[in-house]
Design a protein that fits this description.
It is built from 13 helices and 32 strands. α1 packs across α4 (about 275-285) and α9 (about 440-460) runs parallel beside α10. The radius of gyration is 25 Å and the shape is globular. By secondary structure, the chain is of the alpha+beta class. It starts with 19 loop residues before the first helix and ends with a helix. Strands 6-7-8-18-15-14-10-11 form an eight-stranded antiparallel β-sheet, covered by helices on one side. The protein has an eight-stranded parallel β-sheet with strand order 31-30-29-26-23-20-19-32. Strands 5-4-9-17-16-12-13 form a seven-stranded mixed β-sheet. The longest helix is centred in the C-terminal third of the chain and has 18 residues, at about 440-460. Keywords: Signal. This is Glycoside hydrolase 123 C-terminal domain-containing protein.
């Protein structure tokens, strides 16, 4: 097979999603005659205070709004150096460290509303150094009180009690994004706690993105604090013995001998809701090298087929897609995804495997499948006016595959030293499913090879990668022990580049943007959320809707196995945030589009047309 080069295409994504990201822009436009005044120390160049409409957001004009603490990570009580107005740079053991500030504009009516603090750390030694870098800020909407109201974009595992996050402290996760601080301390973590601090394994607040928005009932101005998208981070708030509330935002990082790293933190002042800070985070703290793909935003209905049967639940699987594709235009389906087509989960496709049996665990018997059948369905999907996508899974692997013996060492290992099984035993499984580790280079290479074959052999418009929350957690295998999200981020960057190398309009969709941030390195999200425990929970639709913090202006086009049962909540959320809805066949519900009762079909089509 020919190998395509990974291409990087320069460009910036533009906004089109009807979401709080657009609402924040209109909110900005309504503000007039509002001043934001920054005070800068003439010697250090660091900013020491900010006042909005004459009201200060800090108690002191001597301490920087954001200072920094740096130390070699030997123990929690190791000596440290603080970078502030009288010492913006200094040597610290084997390190040279420097703090700088600059003002930026988010594009609001308020001019320079964003303070960027950067810490530059150079390792002057001939050995790798493990270093803690922490940004510290006492700024707050009301400097006279330690009480703060926060909006934190929390992982929905807090209210769904998703046991797949048990190793991160799932039982104690916060669920409500609105958090009230009085004299209490709070620790929030972006990605695994251990990824930012080696001695911490659990958290109470698992963040979808590294953004905290701070407000006070006493005044309309708010402060947003955020850091880079591809770096794990801990946000800690405490009240000092002197009665001041202080935020510490930091992590521990290994700096190779002779190399230099730069850490960054932003503080934004604004008058909107938390989505204003999310918008700035996407613009300033996240690097997206690809222009947006217009078609991912232009459709509203996503069809997912689990290699269903045209005869319904009691029929032999394999021909449901062919029956439903004839209804795509009626239902305004904009993308159809083939799922369940493979002989073994994790071993999706091979150029030398022209025909095979899929759904080998189904009680009605397996389905005959082929590359020709998949190619024909892609052609039929496009003829029906929709884009065609192919399903993959980030971590599942069926040990009935002949490839299992070669990849068995890629299995994720738990704290007891045992390979982890994955709790799925559906009709598409012949053997035992295992939780493969994205920290394994061999597994990552396998997935990239599978994706390349899908693009080369079938040429779909998109790949949909399922259950990407599996990229967060710990692998206890001796040769790769630790957090797995850094490897997942690198993988999604490579996957995105691979898919784009086949065309500027080829897309990668992730899933579960309410449980993981990996849609940041994709073109949108297509996860299934149509359950009472997620979409059915009022906190899932809490304003501003938490998963938009990760999505930004990327397309949200869910699949939904419960599409009939959860139709009203699906439509309510789609109208609320300008997203789409999912329809499906072959799992939980088996009518698909072709067998829907006439009255229900007509109502759904009217609802869909109200979104267009």
């Amino acid at each position: 097979m020919k190998r395509r080069n990974f291409l990087l295409t320069a460009g910036a994504a533009s906004s089109a999603l009807a979401s709080p990201f657009l609402n924040s822009a209109s909110l900005f436009a309504q503000q007039t005659d509002v001043s934001v005044r920054w005070l800068k120390d003439g010697n250090s160049g660091l900013f020491t205070s900010v006042a909005c409409e004459g009201k200060p957001l800090s108690a002191s004009n001597e301490t920087p709004l954001i200072r920094a603490i740096c130390r070699v990570w030997k123990s929690p009580d190791a000596s440290s150096s603080t970078l502030e107005t009288h010492q913006p740079d200094t040597p610290h053991g084997p390190l040279d460290i420097e703090l700088k500030h600059r003002l930026q504009r988010s594009g609001s009516q308020f001019g320079e509303d964003l303070l960027n603090a950067t810490v530059r750390v150079r390792n002057t030694s001939d050995q790798d150094q493990q270093v803690e870098v922490t940004f510290v800020s006492e700024a707050c909407p009301d400097p006279t009180s330690v009480d703060q109201s926060l909006y934190i974009p929390l992982n929905v595992a807090g209210f769904t009690r998703d046991k797949r996050f048990a190793s991160l402290g799932m039982e104690n996760f916060l669920s409500d994004c609105n958090v009230q601080l009085e004299r209490n301390e709070l620790r929030c973590h972006y990605l695994e706690p251990m990824a930012s601090y080696p001695s911490e394994r659990t958290t109470t607040a698992l963040m979808l993105v590294p953004v905290v928005d701070i407000s006070s009932a006493s005044q309309p101005w708010r402060i947003g604090l955020f850091t880079k998208s591809d770096e794990p981070m801990r946000f800690r708030s405490e009240v000092t013995p002197e009665g001041k509330r202080v935020w510490h935002i930091g992590r521990v990082i290994t700096i190779p001998a002779g190399e230099t790293i730069e850490e960054a933190c932003w503080m934004m002042v604004h008058r909107g809701d938390a989505s204003v800070a999310w918008k700035a985070f996407h613009e300033f703290a996240h690097d997206d090298p690809y222009p947006r793909i217009d078609w991912t935003h232009e459709f509203k209905v996503h069809y997912y087929d689990f290699l269903s049967s045209a005869a319904g639940k009691d029929g032999v699987r394999g021909d449901g897609y062919d029956a439903d594709v004839k209804r795509f235009r009626e239902f305004h389906v904009g993308m159809g995804t083939q799922h369940g087509f493979y002989p073994y989960l994790g071993d999706f496709i091979h150029p030398d495997r022209k025909t095979w049996y899929a759904m080998q665990g189904d009680e009605k018997g397996p389905a005959e499948m082929s590359l020709a059948t998949m190619a024909r369905r892609i052609k039929d999907t496009r003829a029906a006016g929709a884009k065609a996508a192919i399903y993959m899974h980030l971590t599942l692997f069926d040990d009935a595959s002949p490839l299992f013996s070669k990849l068995a060492d890629c299995r994720r290992v738990d704290s007891n030293g045992k390979p982890m099984t994955f709790p799925w035993n559906g009709p598409d499984v012949k053997g035992q499913c295992w939780w493969m580790s994205i920290a394994s280079e061999q597994w990552r290479d396998h997935l990239l090879e599978q994706a390349r074959w899908i693009m080369e052999i079938l040429g779909p418009d998109a790949i949909c990668m399922d259950e990407t929350f599996a990229g967060i957690g710990y692998d206890e295998a001796p040769d790769r022990a630790g957090p797995i999200s850094p490897h997942a981020i690198d993988f999604f960057k490579e996957l995105h580049a691979l898919v784009r190398s086949f065309g500027d309009d080829k897309a990668i969709f992730t899933s579960d943007c309410s449980r993981s941030p990996f849609c940041l390195w994709a073109d949108g999200d297509v996860g299934d959320h149509a359950y009472g425990s997620s979409l059915g929970n009022p906190l899932y639709r809490q304003e501003p809707v938490r998963y938009l913090a990760a999505l930004g202006d990327k397309a949200w086009r869910p699949c939904a196995w419960h599409f009939r049962h959860m139709w009203k909540p699906q439509m309510a959320l789609a109208r609320q945030v300008g997203s789409g809805v999912g329809v499906s066949n072959g799992w939980i519900e088996y009518t698909g589009l072709n067998q829907l009762p006439a009255e229900e079909k007509d109502r759904m089509i009217r609802d869909i047309e109200s979104l267009l």
